[in-house]
Each structure stands twice: as C-alpha cells, then as structure tokens.
Design a protein that fits this description.
Elements: H1 6-23, H2 27-46, H3 48-68, E1 73-76, E2 83-86, H4 92-118, H5 132-149, H6 155-163, H7 176-179, H8 193-226, H9 233-264, H10 282-288, H11 291-305, H12 312-330, H13 334-353, H14 355-358, H15 362-381, H16 385-395, H17 413-422, H18 427-446, H19 452-458, H20 463-478
Antiparallel strand pairs: 1-2
Length: 491
C-alpha cells in the first residue's frame, strides 16, 4: 500500500480513529488493535507468503530474546530493594543462541535477496518479502541489544516493533530502546493537540516531497537513463543532479510521512535525515544521511570488528567492510558494491588527509563532497557499471548543447498543460520553466538548515500555515498517479 494513495489515507484515518478511540477505554486492547492493523497493512502491501516469512523471523527473535534475557542468577538486595540480574558475558548458551538467531535472519535475507547474485543467476526465488532488508537489520539490532545490554522487552511488544506500519516498508531502522519503552508511556495512543498538528505538518510535507519533487525529478532521470546516447553534457548533469535530489526527497519524504503517522499515534521516530547535502565531508554526510542505518552499522558491525582501536590499517579495513556491507544491503549487484566501496574509500582518504583538509575553505569542502556524492549516486542508480561510466563520461565532454525538450517533457505534465491553455504565449516555455524551477526549488529545500522532522517539535499551527499545508496536500493528492513507489521500498 503506497503512502501516496487514497487507500493509505483512508487506512490511516480509520486506524487512528479506531485505536485512539479504543485507547480511551482500554489501551492494551487498542495496542492489540494497532498490531492487527499493521499486519493488515503488510498483507495488502506484501501478501500472505511474505508475512509468513517475517512472522517466522519474529518467532525466532522472540525465542532468542527470551533466552538472551533470562538471567543466570539473581542478586537480591537487602530489605525491599530491587532485584538485580546477572548476565555473564561468557555464557556459552547465550552466545550460541545469538549466533543461531542471527544466522537465521542473515540466511533468510541471503536466500531471498542474494541467491541470484551469488550463483550468477542460476538460482533465484524471484521475489523477496516487502521490507526484508529493514526487518532483518532491525531484528539483528534487537538481538544485539538483548545480548550485550540485558534489554528485556515484553514479548507482546515485539510484534508491534517488527510490523509497525509506518516503518515496516522503508524504515527508519528502530533501535529497541528508541521505540519499545514508548509503548508504556502516557503519550502512546494518547496524542495531544500539538502532536496532531505536528503529525499533519509532517505528513503534508513528506507527501509534497515525494509527489511534487521526487516524482517529477524522476521523470527527468528516467528519460535520461533511457536515452544515454542522446545526452549532451548539460543534460547529463541534469540527470545526475536530478537523481541526487530525487533519492533524497523520495526517502526523506517517506521518513517524514512515517514520523507524522507515528506522532498521530503518540509515538516518536528517530530522525533519519539531517540536511545531508550540506555536509562538508563524506564522513559528515553519513552522520546526516540515513542516520539509523549508520548507527546500526557502527554499533553492530564497526565496533565488533574493532572500530578504530587496532591501528590505522585495521581501521581503514573496518571502514571498507562496513561500506561494502552497506552497498550490498541496498542491492544485490556490482553497482551497489562499487557505490559502497567508493564511500568507504572516500572516508579513508579523508582520514589520511587529516586536519589539512579542514584548512580548506568551507565552500570548497562542500563542493568537493557534493560532487563526490553526485558521482557515487550514478553507480547506485545505473543498471550496470558500463552505463554509469557512459553517463559520467558524457558529463565531462565538450558537448554543450542545451538539454533536449524530450528530457523534460513529463515534468509537471498536468500543470504545464494547464499553464499553456491559460497563457498560450508561454506554451513553448512552460515545460523548461517548470523544470528549472523544480530543480531550483529542490536544491533550496535540500540545503535548508532545518528539515521537516526537526521542525515538527517547533511547529506551531496558525491559520496561514494551516491553509498553506492544506493547499500543498491538496496539490499532492490531485497529483497522485497510483503507480509510483518509494525507491527504498525496493531495498
């Protein structure tokens, strides 16, 4: 079920109304109702077979967490003091349980997502459960926290943690401590007026990012990739920049909508984007882009590998491993591996460069970082390495022909047609004007210091803002096509 659809809006309104209404009577029943709604959402989007795969994974995690959080002995304090629990870190049974549960999740992900890649296409199931990559990392994070920290969630909470509908398709990846305790707080299913206003703001902003910005940028990107041999250098840069902006507004828009839906239910999701295209280094970029993925890889892979505590050479190797895993997590293909390797090497170069890089002008550091990120995204989007190299080669040729009209033909198609009818004299300029206006607006929005999720907490509803958001949402709803999906739902 796409977020940018009438069906989802109806689902969201009904779910919120029923669950919030039930919570006034009995919050535990309301929570079970929300869990049921999440399962219905997943079945509609992924099907019964996909749900069965994830339910089996949840059963494995639930059993493992029970073993991992069962103390070996208790230390009873004197009097009426609290009871302390001891979890010896050398307990072989707990370690064996962790390994087996993690192997299950990694194995299921490998079979569904990487069998074809690993066997050269000789064996492939041909499908994968919706959101499997996000589900797997989230379950691994749960297992890690249960093992190392003695984190003891209630078993019934794990179902909502695994299938919470705003995040089940494309994240954010939820650390257990960032989500599960909220299910027992007063705000859960009991949002106040500010929460509801902030939720509406985030949902409207995220929908506009996706429908008005990302989808229209995507028409330029798709047209360019479909006709690589016809592109000039300016057109190639338009395609490269277009995908850089499209991917950001697509994924950031999803996270805004997810955060708004969660706030509507009295829950808060972690910030997943913090104006990443303002970064002055590749390292800073990954502190701002897909923050929950970066946190997972740091805590669950980089630190266990030794982090930066075993010398420079080992540190560089660990960084490269982390980003190769990040690339493969996004997709089973050599282009994703190369994209991950580029970002890993970029961070290694920055570490070797050291403080000398910090002496460069801020504008130069930003320009170098932004150019690198743009070039790396080419491999992320390309169907193959050769096509990526073709586009990059075209971008640095001396062919300075302006972008052809066909490249921009579908940008704001309905709006351009209406503008041409109202002002016939501008008909020939309507599409180019809307295209360049789109890119300018997207760049300004991408470089804006405060993103929508951070502005949720400071949002104060006024009549002017309410009217503006209503008009923005109405424009987005009128632009629904019903065929586009969020890019990260494919990962």
């Amino acid at each position: 079920m796409n977020f940018q659809s009438f069906g989802f809006l109806a689902f969201l309104v009904i779910t919120a109304a029923v669950c919030l209404g039930l919570a006034r009577w009995d919050r535990s029943i309301a929570a079970e109702c929300l869990t049921l709604a999440c399962l219905v959402f997943y079945v509609i989007g992924g099907g019964w077979a996909a749900l069965l795969v994830l339910v089996l994974g949840l059963a494995v995690s639930t059993a493992a967490v029970r073993v991992l959080t069962t103390p070996d002995f208790r230390i009873q304090s004197g009097g009426d003091g609290p009871t302390a629990y001891a979890y010896p870190r050398t307990d072989a049974r707990r370690r064996r349980c962790l390994i087996l549960a993690a192997a299950w999740h990694v194995g299921v992900l490998a079979v569904f997502k990487y069998a074809g890649f690993a066997t050269g296409g000789r064996f492939s199931l041909g499908w994968a459960p919706l959101g499997l990559s996000f589900f797997t990392f989230q379950q691994l994070w749960l297992l890690k926290e249960a093992y190392t920290g003695g984190f003891r969630p209630e078993r019934r909470d794990l179902r909502l943690y695994a299938f919470f509908f705003p995040t089940v398709v494309s994240g954010p990846i939820l650390k257990p401590q960032a989500f599960l305790p909220q299910l027992h707080e007063e705000k859960f299913l009991n949002p106040d007026g500010r929460d509801l206003a902030a939720a509406c703001y985030a949902i409207a902003s995220g929908t506009a990012k996706k429908v008005l910005l990302a989808d229209n940028l995507g028409t330029v990107v798709d047209s360019g990739w479909a006709h690589l041999d016809q592109l000039s250098a300016p057109a190639a840069w338009l395609v490269i920049l277009g995908y850089t902006l499209q991917l950001y507004f697509d994924f950031s828009g999803y996270c805004d909508i997810a955060a708004g839906c969660a706030r509507l239910l009295g829950l808060r999701l972690p910030v997943n984007f913090d104006s990443p295209y303002r970064s002055l280094s590749v390292g800073e970029f990954w502190k701002r882009w897909h923050i929950t993925l970066t946190s997972f890889l740091r805590e669950c892979l980089y630190f266990p590998l030794g982090g930066s505590k075993k010398g420079a050479g080992r540190t560089y190797l660990n960084i490269l491993i982390v980003f190769l895993v990040s690339g493969l997590w996004h997709g089973a293909g050599w282009t994703f591996v190369l994209w991950g390797a580029l970002h890993g090497l970029g961070q290694i170069v920055e570490r070797v460069w050291g403080p000398r890089r910090e002496k460069l002008p801020r504008l130069l550091r930003w320009a170098v970082t932004f150019a690198f990120v743009n070039a790396a995204w080419v491999f992320f989007r390309a169907p193959g390495v050769s096509q990526a190299l073709t586009l990059l080669k075209t971008a640095v040729t001396a062919d300075f022909r302006p972008p052809a009209d066909w490249l921009m033909a579908d940008v704001f198609a309905k709006e351009a047609k209406a503008l041409g009818m109202l002002l016939p004299a501008l008909r020939a300029w309507a599409v180019p004007a809307l295209t360049y206006g789109l890119f300018a607006a997207a760049m300004i929005a991408a470089l804006w210091p405060r993103n929508a999720v951070r502005q949720m907490d400071a949002f104060k509803p006024t009549t002017r803002r309410a009217v503006g958001l209503a008009l923005l949402m109405a424009w987005s709803v009128l632009s629904f096509t019903g065929v586009t999906t969020f890019i990260y739902s494919n990962f």
